[in-house]
Every structure is written in C-alpha cells, then in structure tokens.
Amino acid sequence: MYVAKIFGYDGYIEINAFLTGAFSIGIISGAYSTEVFRGAVQSINKGQFEASEVLGFKKKIYYYKVIIPQMLRLALPNISNVWQITLKDTSLISVTGLVEIMRMSYVAAGSTRDPLFFYSFAAVLYLFLTFLSMKLFNKLEKHYSRGY
Amino acid sequence: MDLEFISEHFPRLLKATKLTIELTSLSLLFGIFVGVFFAILRTSKNKILFFISYYYSYIFRGTPLLVQIFIIYFGLGQVEWIRESFLWVFLKEPYSCAILAFTLNTGAYSSEIFRSAFETINKGFVEAAESLGLNKKNIFFKIKLPIAIRQSLPAYGNEMILMLKGTSLASTVTLLDLTGVAKHIISTTFRPVEVFIVAGSIYLLMTFIIHNVIKLLEKKYGY
After folding, report:
1. CB proximity B63 to A under 8 Å
2. What is the pLDDT of residue A2?
3. Cα torsion for B102, B107, B113, B119, to the nearest 10°?
4. Of residues B46 and B204, which shows the higher confidence score?
5. Could you tell me the CATH number of the domain that includes residue B74?
6. Quick one: pLDDT at residue A123?
7. Under an 8 Å CB criterion, which residues of A touch B?
8. ipTM reported for the complex, 2 dp
9. B205 touches chain A (CB under 8 A)
10. Could you read off the pLDDT of B87-111 as tens digits, one per residue?
11. Which residues fall within 8 angstroms of residue A29, CB to CB, at 6 or more apart?
12. How confident is the model at residue B223 (pLDDT cuts 50, 70, 90)?
C-alpha cells in the first residue's frame, strides 16, 4: 500500500493471503537453510574443489556434478530439521486468516464448543505430517549416502 | 516512518517486553529441569520410562507450539475433573497456561539436546573417574555435567532464541506481551508497519544479547 501510494493509488489493496503466507514462511525457512547449506559446503574437503579445477571442469559443471551431490548428503539431516520447523510454523499463518489446519480447528472449536477434541485432532494431523516427512527424508538420506 | 508516533508508543512496548522476558526466563528455567529429567529417563534401561520419554519428546516436537497452547488453555478447561481439581486454580489463568505450554515444549527440545550431549561424553572420562574411586553422584556432577553443559551450549542457545520468539504466541491467549501490546496498539492506530518494526527490533536486540552471552559462555567452558 505504501508503494502504491507513491504511484498515486490511494485505494485498498488486498494481497492474496496464501501468497503472503508462503512468501513470509519462505523467507524464514530460507534464512535457516542458508546456514545449513553454508555449513555443508564449507565442510566439503578442499581437495574436491581443487581436483575438479585441475581436471578442467567449468565452475558450473563441477558444482553440479561434484560439489552439490556431496553437499546434499551432509545437508539433508539439517534440512529435514528446517523442514519440520517450517511445517510447524505454517500453523502461525492461521493468524492472517488463511484457512489451514489451525484456522479450521479454531473455527470448529468455536462453533461446537469442543476445543479439546478439535485441537487434539489438529495435533494428531501435524504429528502425522511430521511422521510422513521423517520417513521421506530417511529415504532421501539413504539415497544420497549410497556411496559411503 | 513517523518518529513522533514511535516515541509516543515506545514506552508501552518496553513495558510489555518485561512480560516477554519473564515468560521466556521462567519457561526456560522450568524447561531445563524437565529437559534434564527426561534426558535421564531416556538413558534408563526400564522400557516403560524410555517409552514415556520417547513419546513425550516425539509428541511435543512434532506438533506446533500454537496447538499446544490452545489445547492447554482452551482444551483442558473443558474436562470436568480438571475444573473441579486444585489444578484449575492454575489452568484458568492464561499466564500459567502459557508458561506450562512453553515449559513442556522447551523441555521436549532440551531433553533431546541434553541427551545427545550426555551420549557424546567420552567413555574414557567416566572410566577414569571410576578407577579414581569417585562415587556415582560425584561422577555425575563433577565429570558428566560440566562436559555435557559444554557440549549442549550451542544447541541450547538456539533453543533459547527459539523460545524467546515462541513467547510471541502468548498473545493468542490474551496475554499482553510484546506482540500482544503491538497488536493492541495497531488495532487502535491502524499503523502496523511502524509498530511491528519497533517490536521486531526489540526482539532482535534480545536475541542479539542471548547470542553473545552464549558465545561468551562457550569461550569460558571451551577446552
């Protein structure tokens, strides 16, 4: 709205709640993952960089073929942590009025006056989601560490 | 940005920061005890104790803090026998509900941190202490605990910062902490940008302080 005012538009702008939510959570989890990827790249043996330079790879190719596959193996456990944090942070989006698990159970709890059941059910749903994603990440970890 | 507007509402936000600090420090303090307790249970050989501590940390780490606060504040009041018991004195207050939820949450996370810290202690240290004839209590307090504190410091610093940010959820159960007061000011003045920038920088300052204190402690305990 501030930006629009500079260009001479005084009306009210409604931004899509889903996009705002996805964007803000994306920025936060992006900040966490930056740290994770930085740590992973830094812990790769320096010899790997030097060897690929010696072999005459272009920077783009050696990053894709040499560094990233090794980095993913190191980063995956932490990325799965970040994923879990992000998954739970989505519950905060209910504050902006986007209808997701938390918002829906809030509405249901309010209209039926049975908050214990609906919030517990929401908790079970979140547990189920984290359980599924843990399984998935375990599989990915196995996939990327097959050389070791 | 309107500096006059900011300076007018700044004292109220600062006053609310007191409640945020209070919530954070109290729940971290209780959380340490809960965390150590469950970390010790986790290493026990009794299957039932292990089961309890495993699922405690699994459930509290697998669900969002917001859900936990809502279940404790809105949900527990629905159960008849809780309302009639002495617990109701605490559970009808949003303040103690928030502290209970934060404590259980941070306890689950810190139990994992402490457990991994205890597990990484070099067995040689414990064996050396045993052969020197120290009793179990002394081994725990003089050998295991200092090493575990050193090991868990970086991760626990993260947990402290996460908890500080987590207390902003106390505003959802009618508590007037920093976020709650910021929301209140916004609802009367309709100026979210300035208020949230000020509230955000207060949070940033607090995380900055925690971060540096942890860094100092790491240096002190480092070897």
Report:
1. yes
2. 65
3. 180
4. B204
5. 1.10.3720.10
6. 93
7. 2, 84, 88-92, 94-95, 102, 106, 109, 113-116, 119-120, 122-123, 126-127, 130-131
8. 0.79
9. no
10. 787 888 889 999 999 999 999 999 9
11. A82, A83, A85, A86, A89
12. low
Label residue B44 exposed, middle or buried (CB < 10 Å: 0-12, 13-18, 19+): exposed
Count CB-CB contacts under 10 A for residue A28: 15
B98 to A3, A117, B59, B104, B174: CA distances (angstroms): 38, 19, 18, 10, 10
Number of folded domains that form chain B: 1
8 Å CB contact between A40 and A79: no
> In 3D, which of A67, A33, A69, A34 has the Cα closest to residue A51?
A67
- CA gap B160, B154 in Å, rounded: 10
Please give, rounded to a whole number of angstroms, the shortest distance from the CA of A120 to a CA of chain B.
Answer: 7
The domain segmentation of chain A, as residue ranges, is 2-34+79-144
- Cβ-contact A91, B67 below 8 angstroms: yes
**Which has the higher per-residue pLDDT, A26 or B221?**
A26
The residue of chain B nearest to residue A84, with distances taken between CA atoms, is: B62
Which percentage of chain A shows pLDDT scores above 90?
A: 22
Can you give the pLDDT at residue B1?
67
Return the pLDDT at B102. Answer: 95
- Quote the domain boundaries for residue B116: 3-221
Q: What are the two backbone dihedrals, phi and then psi, of residue B177, each rounded to the nearest 5 degrees?
A: -90, -165
Q: Tell me the CB-side half-sphere exposure of residue A13, using CA atoms within 13 A.
A: 10
CA separation, residue B24 to residues A143, B68, B170, B208, B220 (Å): 40, 16, 11, 15, 24
More confident position, A7 or B124? B124
Smallest CA-to-CA distance from A116 within B81, B169, B198 is with: B81
Distance CA B91, CA B72 (A): 8
Question: A98, A119, A129, A134: best mutation site toward chain B, by most B Cβ within 10 Å?
Answer: A119
Question: Out of A2, A84, A126, whose CB is closest to B67?
Answer: A126
